[in-house]
Amino acid sequence: MENQISYESASSASPKASELVENSTDSVEPVTLKDFYRLVKPGIIYSNLMTAFAGYWVAAHWQVTWTHLIITMLGIALVMAGGTVLNNYLDREMDAKMERTKNRALPSGRMSANVVLRYGITLGVIGLAVLYFGANSPLAALVGLIGLFLYVWLYTAWFKRTSVWSTFVGAFSGATPPLIGYVAVSGTIDVGGLLLFAFLFLWQPPHFWALGIRRMEEYRAAGFPLLPVVKGSYITKISMIRYIVLLVPVTVMLTAFGYVGYLFLFGSTILGLIWAYMSVKGFQATGEAEVVWAKRIFLYSIIYLTLLSILMVIDTMRIS
């Protein structure tokens, strides 16, 4: 019945319908270079590249070949960009349902899915080639390939749509940037590389769940079975604290095994305890206050990661 009415209405006013289609087509903004830039999610690239740089520096101990460093960072950035673009491709229908993502080039219809798919694959392949041949590190390329596979297929295509464990699974791929930077210099995965991997792995869930609490209704509307959506804020806050508390001994071990100095030890311990205290305070927050708390935790997690990455570089110099 509804289809029939719609068809008859369009038929009886065909000139106006044609005008509407024409005007609608004219109103669509053209694709720009900025759209291609935004597809790679530059905020994610920059923050992860910072940790990759720190991982490279921890392995190099300031004995750096600058050309190799630049090539390695370029390769890592391209691999990550390939993953984020393919993430956009797979999430296009769900992004269209979320307020903060519906105006992106792909869900808004300004860019075709096929173009985005080819763009993501091209970036990923070039990035892996740069790591393998340019940085002369097959191991770095292998870790990058594993991270790319985990992020695109295991996390985005599977767990993100089906399970509250999606953030945990995604953390494995998200923790590879500092490991790639580290193995590009060391040529091996040793204790230092594993500790850097564990550091970023543990950082990610509380960081992302804070955003999940803040944007809970958007994720619910889009159909993401995120932990806050499925289990609620209380369970999510407990889970956040578990990861944050474990971060402290991991950062301590980086000093204990001689990869960084005592400045990093003191700084990471203090910052980790502050983060834990802020998380515990979250149990007192409800309603709008909870949203404000989640925003603060999210922003603090970024500050925490930035400061610790800087301290890694500085305190590596002190022990080199």
Automatic annotation (TrEMBL):
> Which gene specifies this protein's sequence?
cyoE
Listed name of the protein: Protoheme IX farnesyltransferase
Q: List UniProt keywords, sorted A-Z.
A: Cell membrane, Heme biosynthesis, Membrane, Transferase, Transmembrane, Transmembrane helix
Q: Supply the PROSITE patterns for this chain.
A: UBIA
**EC nos:** 2.5.1.141
Q: Which NCBIfam families match?
A: cyoE_ctaB, PRK04375.1-1
Query: Pfam families of this UniProt entry?
Result: UbiA
Say which domain of life the source belongs to.
Answer: Bacteria
Say what the protein does.
Answer: Converts heme B (protoheme IX) to heme O by substitution of the vinyl group on carbon 2 of heme B porphyrin ring with a hydroxyethyl farnesyl side group.
Q: Where do the coiled-coil regions begin and end?
A: none
Work out whether the entry's keyword set contains Transcription.
no
* Taxonomic path: Bacteria, Bacillati, Bacillota, Bacilli, Bacillales
What does UniProt give as GO cellular component? plasma membrane
